Amino acid sequence: MAFYPDERIGLFIDGPNFYTSVRALNVEIDYAKLLEWFRKRGRLVCAKYYTALMDDQEYSPLRKMVDWLDYNGFTIISKTAKEYTDPLSGRKRTKGDMDVDITVDALQAANWLDHIILCSGDGDFCPLLRAIQRKGVRVSVVSTLKSNPPVASDDLRRTADAFIELEELAGQIARPARPADDEPVTV
């Protein structure tokens, strides 16, 4: 995908879906490197991270990460996740879909951006991509086909102007691998 130095770029991260991609590839993302990678490709105007948070948890690793993102260049859009009991299995489930929030924000941003980067593989975003493209804005999708099963929807990949394979990008935006517990650490 071609990036142009003067284009206005917006980064929209579907937190739960992006986490699924990252986890499927066994990679830890360095979000500061992620921002820097896109800043080098154009004028990064906005970087938004969407997620649902459990309200009743005192400590959550996700909350710690969201706080870090909030202080380091990302706008956090969150809502309280709702817990419910699945009527079929009887198991407790969590619901916190952010698709509508991403859609509304991306459509509004398409009025002043040249290129939208969507970090999600969710095929439900195909109508959003087509609506953005009708406004003359290019859309790239960051996800993965290299996992088993692939996280990226084929329809979404085909609808996007460009598909950025997360596995190929990971070498530039991942945290260094941590040593295993039994591996000696050298200083």
Topology summary:
Blueprint: E1 8-14, H1 15-24, H2 31-39, E2 43-53, H3 61-71, E3 75-80, E4 82-85, E5 92-95, H4 99-109, E6 115-119, H5 126-134, E7 138-143, H6 154-159, E8 162-165, H7 166-173
Parallel strand pairs: 1-2, 1-6, 2-3, 6-7, 7-8
Antiparallel strand pairs: 4-5
Structure explained in plain terms:
This protein is an alpha/beta fold and 187 residues long. The protein has a domain at 8-54 and 72-80 and 95-116 and 124-173: Rossmann fold. It is built from 7 helices and 8 strands. It has helices spanning 15-24, 31-39, 61-71, 99-109, 126-134, 154-159, 166-173, and strands at residues 8-14, 43-53, 75-80, 82-85, 92-95, 115-119, 138-143, 162-165. A 6-stranded parallel β-sheet has the order 3-2-1-6-7-8, sandwiched between helices. A two-stranded antiparallel ribbon has the order 4-5. The radius of gyration is 17 Å and the shape is globular. The mean pLDDT is 89.
